Amino acid sequence: MKKKVMYSIIVTLLLFTSLNSFSQAYKKGFKQFNAGVGLLFVGAYASAEFGVDNNIGVGPIVGYTYYNTGLLSGYYGDYGYGQYRVGARGAYHLGETFKIKDDKIDPYIALSIGVVVDRTDINFNANTLEIEYNKRVLPFFNPRFGAAMELTQNLKAYVELGYGGSWMQGGIAFKF
Question: Under a CB-based contact definition with an 8 Å cutoff, are residues 113 and 119 in contact?
Fold first, then answer.
Protein backbone atom coordinates (compact mmCIF):
# COMPACT_ATOMS: atom_id res chain seq x y z
CA MET A 1 0.00 0.00 0.00
CA LYS A 2 2.87 2.39 0.80
CA LYS A 3 4.33 1.83 -2.68
CA LYS A 4 0.99 2.70 -4.30
CA VAL A 5 0.70 5.91 -2.30
CA MET A 6 4.32 6.89 -3.07
CA TYR A 7 3.83 6.14 -6.80
CA SER A 8 0.67 8.29 -6.80
CA ILE A 9 2.44 11.18 -5.08
CA ILE A 10 5.29 11.10 -7.61
CA VAL A 11 2.88 11.11 -10.56
CA THR A 12 0.91 13.99 -9.05
CA LEU A 13 4.09 16.01 -8.42
CA LEU A 14 5.24 15.45 -11.98
CA LEU A 15 1.88 16.66 -13.22
CA PHE A 16 1.88 19.88 -11.22
CA THR A 17 5.57 20.76 -11.58
CA SER A 18 5.47 20.57 -15.36
CA LEU A 19 2.36 22.69 -15.98
CA ASN A 20 4.38 25.61 -17.36
CA SER A 21 5.37 23.94 -20.64
CA PHE A 22 3.37 24.11 -23.85
CA SER A 23 3.31 21.48 -26.58
CA GLN A 24 2.56 22.37 -30.18
CA ALA A 25 0.40 19.26 -30.65
CA TYR A 26 -1.95 19.70 -27.68
CA LYS A 27 -3.44 23.19 -27.65
CA LYS A 28 -6.49 24.18 -25.63
CA GLY A 29 -9.66 22.80 -27.26
CA PHE A 30 -8.21 19.59 -28.75
CA LYS A 31 -10.43 16.47 -28.79
CA GLN A 32 -9.27 12.86 -28.74
CA PHE A 33 -10.89 9.42 -28.38
CA ASN A 34 -8.81 6.47 -27.08
CA ALA A 35 -9.67 2.78 -27.43
CA GLY A 36 -7.42 0.00 -26.19
CA VAL A 37 -7.00 -3.48 -24.80
CA GLY A 38 -5.24 -4.88 -21.74
CA LEU A 39 -1.98 -6.58 -22.61
CA LEU A 40 -1.26 -8.38 -19.31
CA PHE A 41 -4.83 -9.06 -18.20
CA VAL A 42 -7.63 -9.33 -20.76
CA GLY A 43 -9.55 -6.07 -20.89
CA ALA A 44 -11.05 -3.31 -23.01
CA TYR A 45 -10.84 0.40 -22.29
CA ALA A 46 -12.18 3.60 -23.85
CA SER A 47 -11.74 7.24 -22.91
CA ALA A 48 -12.27 10.68 -24.37
CA GLU A 49 -9.97 13.62 -23.84
CA PHE A 50 -10.95 17.27 -24.20
CA GLY A 51 -8.26 19.95 -24.03
CA VAL A 52 -9.01 22.30 -21.14
CA ASP A 53 -5.61 24.00 -21.41
CA ASN A 54 -2.41 23.56 -23.41
CA ASN A 55 -1.10 20.00 -22.84
CA ILE A 56 -3.94 19.13 -20.43
CA GLY A 57 -6.94 16.98 -21.33
CA VAL A 58 -9.77 15.59 -19.21
CA GLY A 59 -12.70 13.34 -19.97
CA PRO A 60 -14.63 10.17 -19.15
CA ILE A 61 -13.19 6.66 -19.00
CA VAL A 62 -14.85 3.23 -19.02
CA GLY A 63 -13.22 -0.18 -18.90
CA TYR A 64 -13.54 -3.88 -18.24
CA THR A 65 -10.80 -6.21 -16.99
CA TYR A 66 -11.03 -9.99 -16.64
CA TYR A 67 -8.89 -11.79 -14.08
CA ASN A 68 -8.57 -15.58 -13.86
CA THR A 69 -7.41 -16.29 -10.34
CA GLY A 70 -7.69 -20.04 -10.86
CA LEU A 71 -4.81 -19.96 -13.32
CA LEU A 72 -2.74 -17.63 -11.14
CA SER A 73 -3.20 -19.54 -7.90
CA GLY A 74 -2.77 -23.04 -9.34
CA TYR A 75 -6.14 -24.22 -8.04
CA TYR A 76 -8.36 -26.39 -10.16
CA GLY A 77 -11.35 -24.67 -11.74
CA ASP A 78 -12.22 -21.31 -13.16
CA TYR A 79 -12.11 -18.60 -10.51
CA GLY A 80 -12.24 -15.78 -13.02
CA TYR A 81 -14.05 -12.53 -12.40
CA GLY A 82 -14.53 -9.20 -14.09
CA GLN A 83 -14.09 -5.59 -13.02
CA TYR A 84 -15.99 -2.69 -14.54
CA ARG A 85 -14.55 0.82 -14.20
CA VAL A 86 -16.31 4.13 -14.76
CA GLY A 87 -14.75 7.46 -13.97
CA ALA A 88 -12.85 10.53 -15.10
CA ARG A 89 -9.35 10.76 -16.51
CA GLY A 90 -6.92 13.62 -16.77
CA ALA A 91 -3.77 13.55 -18.91
CA TYR A 92 -0.78 15.84 -19.21
CA HIS A 93 1.25 15.63 -22.44
CA LEU A 94 4.99 15.92 -21.76
CA GLY A 95 6.51 16.52 -25.22
CA GLU A 96 7.73 20.03 -24.48
CA THR A 97 8.77 19.15 -20.91
CA PHE A 98 11.09 16.43 -22.22
CA LYS A 99 12.09 18.73 -25.13
CA ILE A 100 11.08 16.18 -27.75
CA LYS A 101 11.44 17.87 -31.12
CA ASP A 102 9.66 15.08 -33.02
CA ASP A 103 5.91 15.85 -32.86
CA LYS A 104 5.21 12.22 -33.79
CA ILE A 105 6.13 11.04 -30.27
CA ASP A 106 3.80 12.00 -27.40
CA PRO A 107 4.79 10.93 -23.85
CA TYR A 108 2.18 11.66 -21.20
CA ILE A 109 1.07 10.93 -17.66
CA ALA A 110 -2.55 10.25 -16.78
CA LEU A 111 -4.62 9.84 -13.68
CA SER A 112 -8.05 8.20 -13.53
CA ILE A 113 -10.46 8.26 -10.62
CA GLY A 114 -13.90 6.73 -10.31
CA VAL A 115 -15.68 3.59 -9.16
CA VAL A 116 -14.99 -0.06 -9.87
CA VAL A 117 -17.65 -2.75 -9.66
CA ASP A 118 -15.86 -5.93 -8.66
CA ARG A 119 -16.49 -9.48 -7.54
CA THR A 120 -14.82 -10.66 -4.38
CA ASP A 121 -15.10 -13.29 -1.64
CA ILE A 122 -15.11 -16.40 -3.79
CA ASN A 123 -17.11 -19.11 -2.05
CA PHE A 124 -17.64 -22.71 -3.05
CA ASN A 125 -21.22 -23.82 -2.45
CA ALA A 126 -21.05 -27.50 -1.51
CA ASN A 127 -24.80 -27.96 -2.06
CA THR A 128 -24.85 -26.73 -5.67
CA LEU A 129 -21.17 -27.48 -6.43
CA GLU A 130 -20.81 -23.99 -7.89
CA ILE A 131 -18.65 -20.99 -7.15
CA GLU A 132 -20.44 -17.96 -5.72
CA TYR A 133 -19.21 -14.37 -5.80
CA ASN A 134 -20.11 -11.32 -3.77
CA LYS A 135 -20.15 -7.96 -5.54
CA ARG A 136 -18.64 -4.74 -4.25
CA VAL A 137 -18.35 -1.16 -5.45
CA LEU A 138 -15.11 0.64 -4.58
CA PRO A 139 -13.36 3.86 -5.55
CA PHE A 140 -10.32 3.57 -7.79
CA PHE A 141 -7.25 5.75 -8.34
CA ASN A 142 -5.17 4.75 -11.38
CA PRO A 143 -1.92 6.61 -12.20
CA ARG A 144 -0.40 5.72 -15.58
CA PHE A 145 2.49 6.68 -17.84
CA GLY A 146 2.16 6.32 -21.59
CA ALA A 147 3.49 7.23 -24.98
CA ALA A 148 1.77 7.59 -28.31
CA MET A 149 3.26 7.51 -31.79
CA GLU A 150 1.62 9.33 -34.67
CA LEU A 151 0.57 7.03 -37.53
CA THR A 152 -1.34 9.67 -39.52
CA GLN A 153 -2.30 13.27 -38.75
CA ASN A 154 -5.36 12.15 -36.73
CA LEU A 155 -4.43 8.59 -35.69
CA LYS A 156 -1.95 7.43 -33.06
CA ALA A 157 -0.93 4.11 -31.52
CA TYR A 158 -0.28 4.14 -27.77
CA VAL A 159 1.06 2.00 -24.92
CA GLU A 160 0.47 2.71 -21.21
CA LEU A 161 1.97 1.29 -18.04
CA GLY A 162 0.55 1.79 -14.59
CA TYR A 163 -1.59 0.71 -11.73
CA GLY A 164 -5.21 -0.34 -12.21
CA GLY A 165 -6.99 -2.49 -14.74
CA SER A 166 -4.34 -4.18 -16.81
CA TRP A 167 -0.81 -3.10 -15.86
CA MET A 168 -0.07 -2.63 -19.57
CA GLN A 169 -2.52 -1.35 -22.16
CA GLY A 170 -2.22 -0.60 -25.83
CA GLY A 171 -4.51 0.81 -28.47
CA ILE A 172 -5.28 3.64 -30.85
CA ALA A 173 -6.15 7.30 -30.36
CA PHE A 174 -8.25 9.35 -32.79
CA LYS A 175 -7.65 13.10 -32.70
CA PHE A 176 -10.48 15.32 -33.99
Answer: no
Helix or strand or coil: residue 26? coil
Domains annotated on the chain, with CATH: 2-175 (2.40.160.20)
State pTM to two decimals. Answer: 0.74
Alpha-carbon distances of 104 from 91, 139, 150, 152, rounded to whole Å? 17, 35, 5, 9
Which helix or strand (DSSP H or E) is residue 65 part of?
A: strand 56-68
Distance CA 92, CA 21 (A): 10
What is the chain's pLDDT, residue by residue, as a tens digit (176 residues)? 555 545 554 444 444 433 333 334 688 889 999 999 998 788 999 999 999 998 999 999 999 988 776 555 555 555 667 889 999 999 999 987 777 777 788 899 999 999 999 876 667 777 877 777 778 899 999 999 999 999 998 999 999 999 877 889 999 999 88
Q: What share of the chain is helix, strand, coil (3-state, %, to 5)?
A: 10, 60, 25
Q: 3-state class of 39 per DSSP?
A: coil
- CA 42 to chain centroid, in Å, comes to 13
